[in-house]
Amino acid sequence: MDKLLFAICLGGAVALGFYAIFQLFAQTPGEDRTYKDRPPLLFRLFWPLIQLIAASFRWALSARSEKRYLLALQRAGQSYALTPAQFFAGKLVSAAIGLLFGWLIVGMLGSSSLVIPVGLGVFAFFYPDLWLKDITKKRNLVILKSLPFFIDLLILSVEAGLNLSGALQQAVNRSRPGPLVNEINRVLRDVRAGKSRIDALRDFSERLDFTPVTSFVSALVQGDRTGSNLGPILRAQADQRRIERFLRAEKLAMEAPVKMLGPLIMFIFPCTFIVIGFPIVMKFMASGL
């Protein structure tokens, strides 16, 4: 009788727990994502849970952290895919996955140490930040590569008699899709919405916070404000961007030998020593030494 009563109570508790979880997910406010980008893969896998955590634990995200996450998302081009609260919720979900994986490893090893679960949890909590920095670095590299050609199109459009807004639109129409085109399209949308061209360009510079783009925007703003001819200014910017690309390629070429030392020492040198030393060792063994 006691076992039956215990089983009934346990089943009722489990049912109430599932009902409470269902109500939490049902009461999570919806989000209109018609004009938003798809979230990254990790966020899509746990999207209902992330939405729930973002709505329930928004109080844990300070205004300073929210602003910092928003700037990081803008620089990575993810501001139309995630909000700061959703990104913070993704970090919490990642930390929970790291803890569970750490406990699984500890259970397989038969240990009771907390170092592995806590270490994996901390690493998983900060992994989205590392991922965001990597995305930002790759995005800036794409922008740096496409900027000189984009400026060349601007020069042709300006010297053909178009104003700056028309030149930007023509350059966008004739450029390959990419991060730079997306950002310039946002600038043009801001201008059409009523924002001044200078403010829209400055917002573009602040969103990326990338030195070549900041220099390019400063030259455009200065030329637009003074009413001077933009052709020579843009030509100087294009030359400068190409010089920066060449210097970056030269730097990477000089770093290549240093980066090759690790694989050489760890993988190639031991194999070489084995191939060279094996006949010598065999001769010593054959001679009885």
UniProtKB/TrEMBL annotation:
It is a multi-pass membrane protein. Keywords: Cell membrane, Membrane, Transmembrane, Transmembrane helix. The keyword Ion transport does not apply. The chain crosses the membrane at residues 42-61, 82-106, 112-130, 260-281. GO terms for cellular component: plasma membrane. Residues 150-276 form the Type II secretion system protein GspF domain. Pfam families: T2SSF (PF00482). Its main location: membrane. It is found in: Cell membrane. This is Type II secretion system F family protein.
